[in-house]
Design brief:
The chain is mostly helical. 84% of the residues lie in helices and 0% in strands. The longest helix has 23 residues, at 46-68.
Length: 69
Amino acid sequence: MIRTGLTMLAMMGILCGCENMSSGQKGAVAGGALGTGIGMVAGGSFGQVVGAGLIGGAVGYVGGSALGR
């Protein structure tokens, strides 16, 4: 119950904090979060989780920039 509440609070903060961001920046935030989450669920080590977040952020930025044009 507490975990769900904290997750919802974090999501609200991320969504409200993206108001003045470009499409590329929003894509980077979403991609980084997805990459990190997937790495954590897969049971990767700390380095693998960070790497997945960085790769997800880069791909999200490129995708968001392409959609923003």
